[in-house]
Amino acid sequence: MSRPADWTPLAAADPVPGDPMAVASIGGQLTKVAEQISADVAWLRSLCTAQFWDSGAGEAFAGQVDDAAAKLARAHERYLAAGQALGTSPASAAGYAAALDQAQAMSLRARAQGQAAWSAMRSQLAVVEVACQGLVPWADLNVQASFYPAQPLLDQAGQPVLIHTAASASAAAHAAVTRYNASALDYRTAHGWLAEAVAMRDQAAASAAAAIQAALGDDGLQNQTGLWHDITAAADAAFGWTEQHWAQVVSDIANVCGWIASALGLLALIFAFICPPLAAALEGMALTLTEIAAVCDLILAITGNGSWLAVGLDLFSLATFSLGRNFLRAAEVGVEAADEISLEGAVARADTMSTGLAKPNIDLSAISRLAHDAEAASD
Fold this sequence. Notes:
Blueprint: H1 20-45, H2 56-86, H3 96-131, E1 135-136, E2 146-147, H4 171-218, H5 227-270, H6 276-302, H7 308-357, H8 364-378
Antiparallel strand pairs: 1-2
């Protein structure tokens, strides 16, 4: 059952959080483990009762079995102590789960009475103000009388301050103050219940922790500590994470390589006519990334974590890279051919001009015809 969220004005939040059923469930699981260990110990110790173990090897094996059974028996005490400390049911007489359940029940009762008393105090305070003509005479000598207070006044301990009336006050004022002070006492009672519930929970938690710690320290088993234990624990955690998430990691690698390969392939096409060597380098990087993506998708498909459609698309991309390579080679040849044609045109133009200018008695009209002939040779 969920706990209420509003605990004002007794507390800003739930002062006794927790789930007794969840705690009892864990305690029950630990108790069952202890029972299973006890059964395993009994089974181990029953192995070496036959007479044919009466030999050197049999005695050595029996010694190993006894050591293992003794360690398991001490482990049984650990689990049993932890299970009993937590408790197996909120309705039981012992265990942290039962104490937490009782503390929460008391806190709910305190919340209900405290909020009801606070509401009554606020409504009765308005009557007191009217009966006392706007002046509220607080009984605490350290608090000055106030006109029209917004809400009941609390002291430093969170307890409501009572109201005092003079003997000469009207009967209505006396009645209103009496009702207000009665509600304030109800609020004080609720405040005390809540404090008791918190103390009950804290004491039960400390007792359970002490019992578990005592069981861990008295059984003689060595708990792994130190740098090497920290390293192995970190490695186990890393390997466990990898085992659970490796497929997602491989899929991310395939996706990223595919995106980058597509971008590099597009850039290779753009630079095919501008800078063929750069285009060839971009094409090579795109091809390598596409191969990596294909391998990742193949691993995912084989292990059942991916689709064969992705593998087919990768193979199609690898096949189209050959077309792109041919396109780039054609672009390079085209550029080289253009360079050669341009050079040959310049040579033809120069030959025509030099031959014509070498003729004797050449005039301006001849030079004009010669330039025309040189341009035609260049084309």
